């Protein structure tokens, strides 16, 4: 039986927000994942970009800023950490010298989470990372997706490369990973 107290975020009245380890929303860290319901995972990857690298630093930045998130939603009063066990599971492994190896490593990491029945929340990284995550999560059946972006990420290729930051939705659909009846895209500025 799980003790929810073991999964409560650090209390800012005990440890100030500027102190301690920077984890997502100040949640506990866990290497043993048997009791985790929701796993927060960084994916520090930006080898799928054709410009403006640096997205690999996203998980660290989100962890740092998420120290400010409150444990109770101010409007709804919902206390998510009393509903489920949430833990920062660290970063998915990547190979900074190989996009293809990184994609396989990311897929394998999320496949392990699926096997443990953990609901993943991923923070990247560039927009290449949803593809290996989908490849892990949609093994048995296509999944629904809610995609917030200014771009549709449905290009066929960029500079001859079919797996990059602008193609994951197209690849996901072509590979049968995304259920088009349960796919919603929000915030598009154009049709590409």
| CATH H-level superfamily title | Ureohydrolase domain
Please report the total strand number as a whole number. 6
Strand content: 15-25%
H and E order:
EEHHEHEHEHE
C-alpha-based Rg, rounded: 17 Å
Number of helices: 5
Class from secondary-structure proportions = alpha/beta
Taking the sheet with the most strands, its summary is:
4 strands, parallel
Indicate the low-confidence ranges by residue numbers. none
Shape: globular
Task: Return the CATH topology.
Answer: Arginase, Chain A
GO molecular function, one term: metal ion binding
GO biological process, one term: putrescine biosynthetic process from arginine, via agmatine
Protein name: Agmatinase
Organism: marine metagenome
Account of the protein in words:
- Keywords: Hydrolase, Metal-binding.
- InterPro entries: Ureohydrolase, Ureohydrolase_dom_sf.
- It is a single chain.
- The protein has 192 residues and is an alpha/beta fold.
- The protein has a single domain (4-141), classed as Ureohydrolase domain (Arginase, Chain A, 3-Layer(aba) Sandwich).
- It has 5 helices and 6 strands, in the order E-E-H-H-E-H-E-H-E-H-E.
- It has helices spanning 58-65, 80-83, 99-115, 130-137, 168-174; strands at 28-29, 38-43, 86-91, 119-124, 143-148, 178-186.
């Amino acid at each position: 039986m799980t003790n929810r107290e073991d999964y409560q975020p650090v209390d800012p009245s005990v440890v100030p927000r500027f102190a301690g380890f920077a984890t997502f929303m100040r949640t506990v860290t866990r290497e043993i994942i048997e009791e985790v319901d929701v796993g927060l995972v960084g994916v520090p990857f930006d080898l799928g970009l054709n410009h403006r690298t640096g997205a690999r630093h996203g998980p660290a930045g989100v962890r740092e800023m998420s120290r400010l998130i409150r444990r109770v939603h101010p409007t709804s009063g919902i206390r998510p950490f009393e509903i489920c066990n949430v833990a920062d599971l660290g970063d998915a492994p990547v190979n900074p010298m190989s996009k293809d190896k990184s994609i396989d490593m990311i897929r394998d990491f999320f496949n392990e989470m699926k096997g443990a029945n953990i609901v993943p929340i991923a923070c990247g990284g560039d927009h290449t990372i949803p593809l290996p995550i989908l490849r892990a999560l949609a093994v048995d059946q296509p999944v629904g997706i809610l995609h917030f972006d200014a771009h549709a990420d449905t290009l066929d290729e960029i500079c001859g490369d079919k797996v990059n930051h602008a193609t994951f939705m197209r690849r996901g659909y072509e590979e049968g990973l995304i259920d088009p009846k349960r796919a919603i895209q929000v915030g598009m500025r154009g049709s590409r």
